[in-house]
Amino acid sequence: LLNVLSGIEENPGLTQLSHMTGITEQDIVQVLMPLKLVHKPPGGRDYVLVLDQTLIEEHRRTRSRDALVVDPRHLSWAPPTQAPASVGGRRSGGAPVAPVAAPAAVGTQQPKAPL
C-alpha cells in the first residue's frame, strides 16, 4: 500500500485504492490506521485517506529496512477446497463440519527402486 501511495498527488479514495490493489477497503483501513494515514472525521461515516508524502516515505524507509524478500518462484497456491454444502458451517446435528481430505489419485503406483 505504501508503494502505491508513494508519489500519488491526488487522493484516490478508499474505493479506488481497493480497486487498484485488490485489497478490501476494510483491510486498507486496518493497515493504514496505525500509520496515521487514514482517519474518520468527527461525525463522518466514512474513513478518509491522508496523503502526507513525508509520512508515507518515512514509513516506507522504516519498513524497507525490516522487509523480508520472498522469491515468487518458491510460492505455490491453490484455492481452498470446499467441504460439502452445509447450513451455517454445521451439520444438521449441530456439530462443526470437519475439513474433507482430497481423495487419493486412482491407479497411482509407488516408484520402483532402481536396479
Description:
With 115 residues, the protein is mainly alpha-helical. The chain has four helices and two strands, in the order H-H-H-E-E-H. It has helices at residues 2-5, 13-21, 25-32, 53-66; strands at residues 38-39, 48-49. A two-stranded antiparallel sheet has the order 1-2. A hairpin with an 8-residue loop joins strand 1 (38-39) and strand 2. The radius of gyration is 23 Å and the shape is globular. The mean pLDDT is 74.
Short key terms for the protein model shown above:
115 residues, mainly alpha, two-stranded antiparallel sheet, 4 helices, 3% strand, globular
- Tell me, rounded to a whole number, the average pLDDT: 74
Query: What level of helicity do the residues show?
Result: 25-40%
Secondary structural class: mainly alpha
- As a percent range, the share of strand residues is under 5%
Low-confidence stretches: none
